[in-house]
Amino acid sequence: MRGFVSFVGAGPGDLGLMTEKGIQSLRKADVVLYDRLANPRLLRNTKADCEFIYCGKLPKRHVIRQELINQSLIDYALQGLHVVRLKGGDPSVFGRVGEEAEALEDAGVQYEIIPGVTSSVAAASYAGIPVTHREYSTSFTIRTGHYCLGKEHGETLQQKNGDTIAYYMGIGNLEANCQSLINDGLSPDTKVAVIEWATTGKQRVVEGTLLTINDVVNQENIQNPAMTIIGDVVSLRKKLAWFDNKPFCGKRLLIANGPFTDNEIEQYFLHLGAEAYTFPTLFTKTSALSNEEVNLIMTAEKLLFTSTESVNVMIDAFLEIGLDVRDLPRNIYCTSEKTKHDLKLKGLQADRVGKIDSDMLVVGDSFVGDKDCVQTNPHIKTHRLVSDERFYEVDQRMLEETSWHTVVFPDCAAVDWFIKEAQAIGFSFHKLSFAYIDPSVKEYAKNYGFTKLDEDVQTEIDHWYSIEHNKQTV
């Protein structure tokens, strides 16, 4: 059986700008070859056995040569696999999709090209700069900041045609490109904006003119990836810079992952303009219940569920042997509001507890709130969390490439996981401020050297928690 290759545009960085068709392709993928500019959070949409291959693509420093990428796409497809080539922005706009698709065509491999939101338009929009405007710009030109192979160096009036010009990958040649435009007749006072890490919480925007922008970029240490927008429309940014006004724009948060971490908190802070990343990447390994364990559950006086996963494993076991959840003991308890809410959706009433009684049968993974008691209580393990080794390189790169400000600890187990995995990849975390969700975490985190509370983040978390709590108790 011959395989198939999907070239997928990952969009400019904001997860919400990824297309639904692109997400569907990732869900079917057996192998994903991804570039640096593709948001690595998108890889969470893949199957548990999907293989990841990082292709790098830093300017002038490619991890894998283009020829090897082409051959890898062919080789994996000829093994009968569904391959996704994940590229930042739109793969057809300076994404080398033409070269890679040609290689597949020559090898007789079937493929598709799934467009993405192109980075120039998205970057300008998130910086408050419309690329066209009736009073300022009636045309728009996109260009690479590098010279094209086979083309003479230098520019012509036809090449720069357009009231608004966007340069991709132009930091290295910024001064030369600006001078060339001046030589071709543009005013040295033409407005310029350079947008770093556009559409993400790391976005920074600097402004200048063709004559001054290079000095501004150097002074502010703007690095790739960065988009350069040139033209009178840049003046609209002063009035339309909506993304800059998000309350946490520029804030960089790590969300410590653990057995009780609510993934929605990452999305919540991303929506507020922050750069938020959940670390480490974990996945759940479930264990099927034996008949003896099912009988223990049925005859227990009190049941304590430690997580949603423990509830799901138990219900699957009941359905497998034809039992009804209405046959469960009446005294049911849980350790979080989320688990309580999920039990309610399944028709089961439960009380949330912070301490385990000695006569409770614990169903699930470990319960951080009362470790000593778990060791003496009867305990049925339904699952366990393990580190997802496929994300080791992704997590390491995400932690190293960004200057993080704060870590958010949902619970004590998340503190343990964070410290263990951060130490494993050599990430220094002792200077981070912290915030927490469960009040018991505050002192627990301090015992590990986290002493500076981020008051702004903590206030927002308290607000978020009250909203989520009200949703779950309705």
UniProtKB/TrEMBL annotation:
Q: Which GO terms describe its biological process?
A: methylation; siroheme biosynthetic process
The keyword Hydrolase belongs to this UniProt entry's keyword annotation = no
The record's annotation in InterPro entries points to: 4pyrrol_Mease (IPR000878), 4pyrrol_Methylase_sf (IPR035996), 4pyrrol_syn_uPrphyn_synt_sf (IPR036108), 4pyrrole_Mease_sub1 (IPR014777), 4pyrrole_Mease_sub2 (IPR014776), CobA/CysG_C (IPR006366), Siro_Cobalamin_biosynth (IPR050161), Uropor_MeTrfase_CS (IPR003043)
Entries under Gene3D superfamilies matching the protein: Cobalt-precorrin-4 Transmethylase, Domain 1 (3.40.1010.10), Methyltransferase, Cobalt-precorrin-4 Transmethylase, Domain 2 (3.30.950.10)
**Domain Tetrapyrrole methylase residue range list:** 5-210
Note whether Chaperone occurs among the keywords: no
* Classification via CDD domains: SUMT (cd11642)
- What UniProt keywords are attached to this protein's entry? Lyase, Methyltransferase, Porphyrin biosynthesis, S-adenosyl-L-methionine, Transferase
According to its UniProt record, the EC number is 2.1.1.107
Under Gene Ontology molecular function, one entry of this record is: uroporphyrinogen-III synthase activity
Q: Which family does it belong to?
A: Belongs to the precorrin methyltransferase family.
Query: What's the name of the protein?
Result: Uroporphyrinogen-III C-methyltransferase
